[in-house]
Design brief:
Bound molecules: zinc ion
Distance between the termini: 60 Å
Number of domains: 3
Structural class: mainly alpha
Strand content: 5-15%
Oligomer: single chain
Shape: extended
Strand order of the largest sheet: 1-2-3
Largest sheet: 3 strands, antiparallel
């Protein structure tokens, strides 16, 4: 019993103290009249009844180290990262490059950004910056690659352009098949690379093709970057009809601008102005107004005029003033590794489709739904 412990020889003063404290705790726990009877300790004991807060504080004092400051730690509840970041929301902080999170989009962006705006020298996409980043490689200087987890492996793609085409193709094929095995033994990237669909997930996360993201962005572009009289020459891989559909759809989802006296007498929905179409196209291809004196990665309520636009994913900046004699390609202006440079992704959005096509035909819906004849399928575990 406890008395045996109390009577046992003790090694040091600390042990004696500990034993006395334990005695206190047990005394409180059992409201111990029998404990106190044979106790000669003159220190008065608070043993009147069970006192839970008192007991807990005694126990806490027992286990706490005297040298540690008794600072209360607050554990914040974990907030879930939102699935998408619309144009009005700042981008989240990126994890460090060394983080081995092969299935997460934001760590992929951390690795891609090491390639900078210059990227790798023009190389086939099988060994381009995106393919390398998916396999855990980051830039280590011009055309040099190193393991993101610093397993020691390093290689390069320099000098490929000097090879004869037949030889070069063979080298590229070999490099592409060894993107995983080039990591040293024991490196996690050697076991599991990122899935090929991760750049698409990254694009959908940071550039959602919804009207609540594209409409504020197109309006900010129209007001901040296209307010001057001269319009840049531009082209995009999206068709003219798709851009027009998008401009009309975005107009419907925005509060109307002050009425234009010229169009007041017209009937029916008027066609988008050239400026409206360019604002919609710039928004679709992920371009944001960029103010060098106050750089942000999202749309501000009151942004200042600027004729620079920038991509918040690849950080390429484009001065619109330089496209009065040449043509701005809204897709090719992105850095080679930017997920907004790939082709055809904008057709995921119903906003570029003709309006009637966006509404689900009830007949088509009927064909898509299959309702079983006798209600729910019979299951052993299901109660009828
Ligand atoms: Zn490695
Ligand atoms: Zn970009």
């Amino acid at each position: 019993m406890f008395t045996d412990v109390a009577d046992a020889p003790v090694d040091s003063g600390l042990d004696a103290e500990l034993v006395a404290d334990l005695h206190d705790a047990f005394g409180m726990m059992y409201a111990g009249s029998e404990w106190d009877s044979d106790d000669e300790d003159p220190v008065p004991r608070r043993t009147e009844g069970f006192d839970l807060p008192g007991l807990l504080s005694e126990l806490a004092a027992l286990v706490s180290m005297p040298s540690v400051p008794t600072k209360r730690r607050l554990f914040q509840p974990r907030t879930r990262t939102p699935g998408v970041f619309t144009s009005t929301v700042p981008l989240p902080g990126l994890p460090p490059v060394a983080a081995y999170l092969p299935f997460s989009p934001l760590p992929l962006l951390s690795r891609l950004r090491t390639f900078g705006v210059a990227g790798l020298s023009p190389v086939p996409s099988e060994i381009g910056a995106e393919a390398c980043a998916l396999h855990g490689w980051v830039s280590a200087g011009t055309d040099a690659l190193a393991c993101a987890r610093a397993c020691g492996a390093a290689w390069g793609v320099g000098g490929l352009a000097d090879l004869r085409p037949a030889v070069r193709d063979g080298v590229v094929r070999t490099l592409a098949t060894t993107l995983t095995s080039r990591h040293n033994a024991g490196c996690a990237w050697r076991v599991t690379p990122s899935p090929p669909e991760l750049p698409t997930e990254l694009r959908r996360m940071l550039h959602p093709l919804t009207s609540d993201s594209l409409a504020p962005l197109s309006r900010a572009l129209a007001q901040q970057s296209l307010s001057g009289p001269a319009m840049p020459q531009w082209t995009s891989p999206a068709s003219a009809a798709e851009i027009e559909n998008l401009a009309m759809a975005l107009r419907r989802s925005l509060p109307p601008l002050p009425p234009d006296p010229e169009s007041e007498n017209r009937t029916g929905p008027r066609r988008p102005e050239p400026k409206e179409e360019l604002a919609a196209a710039l928004a679709l291809f992920g371009w944001f107004p960029y103010d060098p004196t106050f750089p942000t990665d999202h749309v501000l309520a009151h942004g200042t005029p600027t004729d620079i636009v920038s991509c918040r994913i690849c950080r390429r900046r484009v001065g619109l003033w330089s496209f009065h004699t040449r043509t701005l390609d809204l897709s090719a202006a992105h850095v080679a590794w930017c997920p907004l440079r790939a082709g055809g992704w904008w057709r995921e959005s119903a906003l570029v489709a003709p309006r009637s096509a966006g509404i689900l035909d009830p007949k088509a819906l009927g064909e898509m739904l299959v309702v079983s004849e006798d209600g729910r399928p019979r299951k052993k575990w299901r109660r009828r």
